[in-house]
Amino acid sequence: MRLGCWSLRLAAVAVPLAIGACKGGGGGDSGGASSAQTKGASLKMGAALSMTGAAATYGQSQKNGLEAATEEVNGGNTLQGIKLELLVEDDATSKEQGINVFQRFINTDKVSVIIGPTLSTTATAADPLAQQARVPVLAISNTSPTGITDIGDYIWRDSLTEAQVVPGAVKKAKAKIGFKTAAVLYGNDDVFTKAGYDVMKKALADETVTVVDTQTFAKPDRDFSAQLTAIKGKNPEILVVSALADNAAAIVAQARQLGYAGAILGGNGFNSPAFIKNAGPAAEGVLVGTSWNSASTAPANQRFKELMQKRGVNPDQFSAQAYSGVLIVAEAVRKAGFKTGRDEVKNGFAQVKDLDTPLGKFSFTPTRDAQHEPAVQQVKNGKFEIVQ
Ligand code: 1QQ
């Protein structure tokens, strides 16, 4: 099945309104996907984003970032006439739909590169198809340390893993607050939330923090009072949570309603303004490690924030990673000698080094993961603020 109404095609020219939201048809032109082409070609980027379902919060931000960067690159005409063409499809926060979208991008649209999918869980199911078909994938939000780039040499990511972010956040939070006991609550039906838990457990142990209780939940859950009452009974100084944004907001709101007054630290799922909006005043003081330093005054970050403001949207980590992803694809094309084939893009990725992006100076590690500085943020007056 194809979710036609989420099929979005951003035209190769820098015209923002060239979007056919319900466009049908296959666009079967091979578009330089499987063979190297040079100047004057267009390069199709297929983005599999969660526009509906449990991760829809992130998908919209990602779409904003991808569109802004595609227009920016095409408008700047820095690819010797090659235009980027962005195709967005909804992965519906599901493995099955993620697989369908990947198949369409690989076989029908014949894209040069796939961006996404939004969740690690979906990536574990869909990425092997791209690896097998030798289509490069650039993940822009998968943070499970394992099971993503280790699928194979066509899988890359610009998102820092939980293992690259959470230990520093726990350390900084401990230095700030000085806790000795913690409880952990995590989703046990999702690759990212489970991986986040493993990282949190180790980070707390490394900081010699005693975990007094560990509780679990599943994505469809809405009532967390049983777990939170048990946790409150153990009186931890900090509650550490690995959850997607919707669950995270409900957990934090219910924890405060139940009278839990200790500190709260979240994993990557918390990095969305939707978490703050939905948790309301209960979000105040919540700490979270992030891959995007919103306070950075670097020109690439200022430009990104300016473009998001022009579009009337709140920038966040997810739009920053998406925007950076397109800059990385453009840089890969440059490094590949302005060729648009799948292998050229993949080989170009390997040559991206210290690229200026809103995430900072960006390079890939030898195992195709992201390499740049993480940060820690805290909710203050309804907004994320970088903790210095
Ligand atoms: C993952 C994540 C999600 C919280 C963000 C989209 O990090 O699934 O890996």
Topology:
Elements: E1 8-10, E2 42-49, H1 56-76, E3 83-90, H2 95-109, E4 113-115, H3 120-133, E5 137-139, E6 155-157, H4 162-177, E7 181-187, H5 191-206, E8 210-217, H6 225-234, E9 238-242, H7 245-257, E10 263-266, H8 273-279, E11 287-290, H9 299-310, H10 317-335, H11 342-349, E12 355-357, E13 360-364, E14 370-371, E15 375-380, E16 383-386
Parallel strand pairs: 2-3, 2-4, 4-5, 5-6, 7-8, 7-9, 9-10, 10-11
Antiparallel strand pairs: 1-3, 11-15, 12-13, 13-14, 15-16
What would the principal axes of the Cα set say about the shape?
Answer: globular
Name the CATH architecture of the largest domain.
3-Layer(aba) Sandwich
CATH class of the largest domain: Alpha Beta
Summarize model confidence as the mean pLDDT: 92
Structural class: alpha/beta
Name the hetero compounds present.
(3S)-3-methyl-2-oxopentanoic acid
The separation of the N and C termini measures: 47 Å
- Largest β sheet strand count, sense and barrel closure: 7 strands, mixed
Share of residues in strands: 15-25%
Number of strands: 16
CATH topology grouping of the largest domain: Rossmann fold
In N-to-C order, the SSE pattern is EEHEHEHEEHEHEHEHEHEHHHEEEEE
Low-confidence stretches: 1-5, 11-32
Name given to the CATH homologous superfamily of the largest domain: Response regulator
Cα radius of gyration in angstroms: 20 Å
- Share of helix among residues? 25-40%
Number of domains: 2
